[in-house]
Structure formats: structure tokens, C-alpha cells
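## retry 2 of 3
previous attempt timed out at serialization; input unchanged, resubmitting
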Amino acid sequence: MKEVDLSDLTDWINEEKSNVDRAILRNKPLGRKIRTRPRDPDEIKILDQLCMKRWEKAEQEGKIRYLSDRVWYYEID
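## retry succeeded, writing output
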């Protein structure tokens, strides 16, 4: 078995890093990654509850203004 010094290995990794990074970026698909599995029903309920609480909190803090029935202004931090 061949013995390798750690400093030699580190040097080799640093030399090849840019090539590997370039290859990864070249093969990476454009755009956002598509979720391939459906969400768990419990996860859906929890996310819905979190969103509703965040909306209610924003209403209480005055960050949401209802300009008309279909137009709102949401002040983002």
C-alpha cells in the first residue's frame, strides 16, 4: 500500500479543487431544484399554522395594510 504524506494530499486537493468545482457547476441544472416527494400531512399542517401565526402577528404590528379587497401592502423587514 502506498503511503501519502498529509501535506502532499492537501496540496493535491487544492490543485484539483478548481477543476472539480468547475465540473460540478457545469453539470448543475439551471433553476431551482424541484421537490420530488410530497410533503408529509403533519408537515403541511405545521407550516400552515406557522404561516397563519406570522400573518396575524404582522397584522397586529401594523405591517399589513388592506388597500382594497384584493390589494394588500405587506411591509417586509
